[in-house]
Design goal:
single chain; 136 residues; alpha+beta; five-stranded antiparallel β-sheet; 5 strands; 30% helix
Length: 136
């Protein structure tokens, strides 16, 4: 079954498109957190970033900065967040990879974040970094 984003890409559901190429489609979010909230979606239908092909991931990487610049210029926003969630525990609601570009304004409109950092044990950090590096 196709995700809502695949249906948007196919033109089955209308959207306010801002960008399209062979690999990427971008459009305004219909439930924006702020003016200019844009979704950047690979045309490849995968649920999480780790499942994307190298081609689709590279295409997102190439156009994401360009779309960010366009959103900032069009909205006049002084700042923005890029949000990308993978899996329901990480608050993903549509299981098709997508990046949110969320303009942040001086009046507070935009993404709110409650950051709760902890500390990294030096020895555990060394072990974990070595494990991750061995798998890349």
């Amino acid at each position: 079954m196709s995700s809502i984003f695949t249906r948007i890409i196919r033109g089955e559901i209308p959207c306010h498109k801002v960008y399209e190429d062979a690999f990427v489609f971008a459009f305004l979010d219909i439930s924006p957190l702020s003016r200019g909230h844009t979704l950047v979606v690979p045309k490849e239908e995968k649920a999480q970033v780790d499942q994307l092909s190298d081609e689709a991931a590279a295409a997102i990487g190439r156009v994401l900065p360009r779309i960010c610049r366009a959103v900032l210029q069009a909205t006049g926003a002084p700042a923005y967040n890029i949000l990308q969630n993978n899996g329901s525990l990480a608050h993903q609601a549509v299981f098709h990879v997508h990046f949110h570009i969320i303009p942040k304004y001086s009046d507070g409109a935009g993404l709110g974040i409650a950051w709760q950092p902890s500390s990294l044990d030096r020895e555990e950090g060394a072990r974990l970094a070595q494990q991750i590096a061995a798998m890349t």
